[in-house]
Design a protein that fits this description.
Layout: H1 10-14, H2 16-51, H3 53-67, H4 71-86, H5 92-117, H6 121-129, H7 134-164, H8 176-187, H9 190-222
Helix pairs in contact: 2-3, 2-5, 2-7, 2-8, 3-5, 4-5, 5-7, 6-7, 7-9, 8-9
Length: 224
C-alpha cells in the first residue's frame, strides 16, 4: 500500500513543459469560447428586444435546447452527427470550441436578458424622450448599466466554461485533463498528477472568484 513517503512530487517538474502547454490550450479554449459565447448572448438578447416576438421564440428554443441537454451529448452530436448532416468534417478542437461556445452562449443570453430587464423602465422612457434610436439606447444607456448587474454571473459562467473544457478530453484534445490522464497512465502515479491538476483548477477558480468580486466592487463604486 502506498504511503505519503512513496509520493514523487518531482514528477510534476519532469512533465512541466507538457502540463504548461496543456494549461495554455485549456485557457485559450476558455477565453475564445467565452468571448464568442458572450457575443452570441449579447447579440441574441439585444436583437430579441429590438425585433420582438418574431425572434423571441427562436431565441427561447436555442436557450432551452442547450441549457437542458448534457454538454457531453452536445459535444458528441457536434462532432459525429453534424458532419454527417452537413458533409463538413470538424476537428476535435473545432467541435469542442463550437460546443462550448453555443452552450455558454445560451447561458450568457439569459444573463444579458436578466441584466436588461433589471434596468428601470424610466431609463427607456428618458431615452425615448431624448429621441435616441433603440439601438443607440442599448449601446449608451441600457448595456452600460446592465453590465454592473451582469458582471458576477458573467464571471461565474466563464469559470463554468473553464471547467467545461475538461469534457474535451473525450475527443483527445490536448487540454489539461487529457494530458494529466496520459501522464498518469504512463507513470502509474495518479495521486501526484491528479492532485496537481486539482490544485491548478482550484487556484484558477479562486482567481476567477477574486476577479468577479473586484470587478463588482469597481463597477459599484464607479456607478455612484
Amino acid at each position: 500500500m502506498n504511503t505519503l513517503l512513496d509520493l514523487q512530487p518531482g514528477l510534476i517538474w519532469t512533465y512541466r513543459q507538457t502540463l504548461f502547454e496543456a494549461l495554455l490550450i485549456t485557457l485559450w479554449l476558455t477565453v475564445a469560447s467565452s468571448i464568442a459565447g458572450i457575443s452570441v448572448g449579447v447579440v441574441l438578447a439585444v436583437a430579441e428586444r429590438l425585433i420582438g416576438r418574431s425572434l423571441s421564440w427562436l431565441v427561447t428554443c436555442y436557450v432551452e435546447l442547450f441549457r437542458n441537454t448534457p454538454l457531453l451529448v452536445q459535444l458528441m452530436w457536434m462532432h459525429f452527427a453534424l458532419p454527417m448532416i452537413t458533409g463538413v468534417p470538424l476537428t476535435p478542437s473545432q467541435s469542442g470550441f463550437f460546443t462550448l461556445t453555443l452552450s455558454a452562449g445560451a447561458y450568457f443570453t439569459e444573463i444579458v436578458r436578466g441584466g436588461i430587464v433589471a434596468i428601470p423602465r424610466g431609463q427607456w422612457e428618458a431615452s425615448n424622450a431624448l429621441g435616441l434610436p433603440r439601438w443607440l439606447t442599448f449601446r449608451l444607456v441600457i448595456l452600460p448599466q446592465a453590465l454592473r448587474i451582469m458582471m458576477p454571473p458573467l464571471v461565474n459562467m466563464i469559470l463554468s466554461v473553464f471547467k467545461g473544457t475538461t469534457i474535451m478530453s473525450i475527443l483527445s484534445v490536448g487540454e489539461l485533463l487529457q494530458n494529466v490522464s496520459r501522464i498518469s497512465n504512463y507513470t502509474f502515479r495518479s495521486v501526484e498528477i491528479f492532485t496537481f491538476a486539482a490544485l491548478i483548477y482550484l487556484l484558477i477558480g479562486l482567481s476567477f472568484d477574486m476577479l468577479a468580486r473586484h470587478l463588482e466592487s469597481h463597477l459599484r463604486q464607479s456607478g455612484r
